[in-house]
């Protein structure tokens, strides 16, 4: 039995590509010209949220059944056309929410406390030989503004509570979140 054929729009982690290669005949996208001979056999696309699917690629694949996005963004996919053509569009919601929120809080702490300068000071052997870099600013109690209170925004806000940070947010609508202050909405 032949494996279904898919188009990989953007490179992914080696482990993911290995799994795709095991389950499918994977064509790695390089140009529209490459699709000329295989377009009618491509049933699926694997891509990233930021890259999505260029309209010209979507237009050239008559047998396309699914677009699998390794991420949560769908802005770079023509969802209206996908619906009209009965093409399923999937994402991986929640998979990296905690990781992104952890990284955001880590970057906030690193920036305010001046961790890169301190790290460089120690690694360069300056400890005890030169004046120490500034200690940085206190994180606890700082005001935090979040643009977009989706899954990641809420996860960051939740972590910010551990630092007693008052949180204000903007979003497309008032989410009526009692613990956070809405400062702007477009609706």
Automatic annotation (TrEMBL):
Protein name (Swiss-Prot/TrEMBL): Glyoxylate/hydroxypyruvate reductase B
Class of the enzyme per the UniProt entry, highest EC level: oxidoreductase
InterPro entries tied to this protein: D-isomer_2-hydroxyacid_DH (IPR050223), D-isomer_2_OHA_DH_cat_dom (IPR006139), D-isomer_DH_CS1 (IPR029752), NAD(P)-bd_dom_sf (IPR036291)
Lineage of origin: Bacteria, Pseudomonadati, Pseudomonadota, Alphaproteobacteria, Acetobacterales
A GO CC term attached to the entry: cytosol
Entry keywords, A to Z: NAD, Oxidoreductase, Plasmid, Pyruvate
Name of the encoding gene: ghrB
Annotated D-isomer specific 2-hydroxyacid dehydrogenase catalytic domain residues: 6-155
EC number: 1.1.1.79
């Amino acid at each position: 039995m032949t494996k279904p054929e898919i188009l990989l729009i953007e490179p992914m982690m080696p482990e993911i590509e290995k799994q795709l290669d095991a389950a499918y005949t994977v064509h790695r996208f390089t140009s529209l010209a490459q699709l000329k001979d295989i377009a009618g056999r491509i049933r699926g696309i694997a891509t990233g949220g930021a890259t999505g699917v260029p309209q010209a690629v979507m237009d050239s694949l008559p047998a396309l059944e699914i677009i699998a996005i390794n991420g949560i963004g769908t802005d770079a996919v023509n969802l209206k056309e996908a619906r009209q053509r009965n093409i399923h569009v999937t994402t991986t919601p929640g998979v990296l929410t905690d990781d992104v929120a952890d990284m955001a809080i880590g970057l906030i702490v690193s920036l305010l406390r001046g961790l890169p300068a301190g790290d460089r000071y120690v690694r360069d052997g300056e400890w005890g030989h030169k004046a120490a870099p500034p200690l940085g600013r206190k994180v606890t109690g700082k005001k935090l503004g979040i643009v977009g209170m989706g899954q990641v925004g809420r996860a960051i806000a939740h972590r910010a509570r551990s630092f007693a940070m008052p949180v204000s947010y903007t979003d497309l609508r008032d989410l009526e979140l009692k613990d956070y202050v809405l400062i702007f909405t477009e609706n």
